[in-house]
Amino acid sequence: MLPSETPEHPFDGSKLQAVRNQLLAGFRAGRLRNRMERISALNALERLVQENQELLCQAVLEDLGRPKEDSMLAELTVVIEEIHAARKNLARWMKPRHKLMPLPLFPSRGEVTPQPYGIALIIGPWNYPLQLMLVPLAAALAAGNCALLKPSEMAPACSRILGALLQKYLPSDIVSVVEGDAEVSRQLLELKWDIIFFTGSTQIGRVVAQAAAKHLTPAVLELGGKSPCIVDSTADLEVTARRIIWGKLLNSGQTCVAPDYIFTPRGNVENLCRQLEITIKEFFPQGFVLGESYCGIVNQRHFERLEKIAAAHKNQLRIGGRLNQSQRIIEPSFYILDSKSLGSAAIMQDEIFGPLMPIVPYESVDEAIGYINANDHPLALYVFSSDSSLISKVESSTRSGSFVVNDTVIQLAASQLPFGGVGASGTGAYHGEAGFNVFSHFRSVLKRPFWLDLPIRYRPYSALKIWILKKMFGLRTAKLKS
Q: 3-state SS of the chain: helix, strand, coil percent to 5?
């Protein structure tokens, strides 16, 4: 059920160049120039998802051991929502934005016109191998770009199904898929693209950014990071525990916006832990069954990485802790950490990307804010509280890709909200109109008639001309000498 090996790549450099050239020819031929052509492509993408739900969820089950219900909710519904939002709003998004020109430029008209970049390279991750390929693809198509998709080799079943279905539903000079390993990605990054969209780790994001810089190609980087969760003493712990457990255990914690660690007042720790234990039992009454109620860790390397972190903190374990190596299952595990030892704690060094979670007691919320600000800006920051002043304090004192009050992860489902990081957690944002915008170049357009052509702008410049020009453009003027 879970993959153990990754496929060898079937492409060499010349074939990759040929695929790129085919997409470039499609773009130059104007395959997605007008709105109806773009809507037709979006319709085809929707049919792909709607008509192949079982196949797509089965592929994720093969790759990750994830229950089909979770894949339907966390992958397919998000893609459909993005397609619907694009189709509904595309006419408005494509319209030029008219701008009022300053009086010195009268009579002129200004506008900002969205244009597609051209051909997009979209490189996706393994943790949500459908959503994180098809949502950026929907945005790229809505903006009028042709695209090449490179799915992750760590989700081979999803990579294969995407390659087969996209070839069936969309012309190859609009969308193509290239499968393969990291070497294929490297070769793709050597080619010239008009925009690169990458979802993955911060470490690989730096490599992508360097490759894009060689061609001065704009790059959208959707990365990760340690997303904090602050649980105030005024929070409803029953609801809080449900929402944290749901967000943390979706995909067994292998989610870029999963809550990574919890800060809570010292007096709140035991009550919170008790409620977390109750919630875990409610969610998994039959235990943790791979493919039915729970998701496995993607491969042996990641399992061993998490196993090592768990071993380093076995003395701080408060909830869970059992591991099943044959199925690569790690039960939800919570650890109580001393705030003074966070700098050396193995579990606090990198994004966990698994069902392990530290709880850090604090005396004042300022400790939590200080720690968050001393580290890279997170992709998401979650606050559970009924205290509006505390919520405002955390919101105004921190920076993060998204800020969510009294819930986790669901911000991903709102196409009206841009999704992206800041600093080490990413650059650029997408979803809904933000996705259209990030795949568009906004061209400035200024139009003037011939009927008014004042000589004041042209040489030779007299003192009077200079005085008038300064007046017109707001510069300080000296009195004219007679």
A: 45, 20, 35
Q: Which pLDDT tens digit goes with each residue over 182-196?
A: 999 999 999 999 999
DSSP assignment letter at 379: S
Q: Is 395 a catalytic residue?
A: no
> pTM for the complete prediction?
0.94
C-alpha closest to that of 430 among 218, 179, 201, 190: 218
Residue 273 and residue 46: Cα distance in Å, rounded? 42
Nearest to 265 by CA among 340, 366, 352, 341: 366
Q: Does position 4 have pLDDT exceeding 80, yes or no?
A: no
Q: List, in order, residues 6 or more apart from 66 with CB less than 8 Å away.
A: 60, 251, 291, 295, 296
CA distance 428 to 439: 10
Catalytic residue among 256, 295, 331, 433: 256
Q: How confident is the model at residue 168, as a pLDDT? A: 98
Check if 256 is active-site. yes
At residue 267, φ and ψ (nearest 5 deg) are -70, -5
Q: What is the pLDDT of residues 17-59, one digit of tens each?
A: 999 999 999 999 999 999 999 999 999 999 999 999 999 999 9
> Which one, of 27, 141, 196, 8, lies nearest residue 188 by Cα?
196
Secondary structure of residue 216 in the 3-state scheme: coil
Who's near 324: CB < 8 A, 6+ residues apart?
288, 330
Per the CB < 8 A criterion, the answer to whether 74 and 134 are in contact is: no
What distance in Å separates the CA atoms of residue 134 and residue 170, rounded to the nearest whole number?
A: 13
Strand partners, 440: 116
State how far the alpha carbon of 106 is from the alpha carbons of 69, 120, 455, in Å. Answer: 60, 39, 14
Burial of 236 (0-12, 13-18, 19+ CB in 10 A): middle
Q: Quick one: which H or E segment has residue 419? A: strand 419-420
Among 62, 153, 179, 222, the one annotated catalytic: 222
Distances (CA, A) of 30 to 17, 117, 159, 171, 479: 20, 12, 28, 13, 57
Q: Which domains, ranges and CATH numbers included, belong to the chain?
A: 13-223+430-441 (3.40.605.10), 227-417 (3.40.309.10)
Are 141 and 45 in contact, with CB atoms under 8 Å apart? yes
Q: Report the residue count for the chain.
A: 482
Token couple for 353? 């990307």
pLDDT in tens, 208-236: 999 999 999 999 999 998 999 999 999 99
